[in-house]
Amino acid sequence: MNKYMQNQPKTFSNIKSYTPFHSTLDPCPPIGQKYYRTPPNLYLGVQPSNLQQFTPLEALKKGTLWPVFYDFYENPYKKRGG
After folding, report:
1. Which of 7, 25, 69, 78 is the most interior residue, by most CB within 10 Å?
2. Which residues contact 14 (CB under 8 A, 6 or more apart)?
3. Measured distance CA(5)–CA(13) in Å, rounded
4. pLDDT of residue 12
5. 4 by DSSP, 3-state: which?
6. pLDDT tens readout for residues 32-78
7. Under DSSP, is residue 60 helix (H, G, I), strand (E, B) or coil?
8. Which is nearest to 50 in space by CA: 7, 14, 1, 4?
9. Rounded to whole angstroms, how far apart are CA atoms 10 and 6?
10. CA atoms of 33 and 15, how far apart (whole Å)
């Protein structure tokens, strides 16, 4: 966790989930939980000056110049371990 997000509650996560409504009359099985990610810039507010920066090559690989805005995507539906 970076120093700009330290004031968030301990249970903070940028991965959110919800359970879609399933009617008792629906012939299909329930879907279960759906997951989505929220970008880090939602929790930062105004961009502070003098933020740490990636090197130009690393910034091209990660898609952003500032580490505070970098959010690695991990597929929540993919089973772990193989």
Report:
1. 69
2. 37, 38, 39, 40, 43, 71
3. 11
4. 66
5. helix
6. 888 888 888 888 778 888 889 999 999 999 998 999 888 887 776 77
7. helix
8. 4
9. 9
10. 12
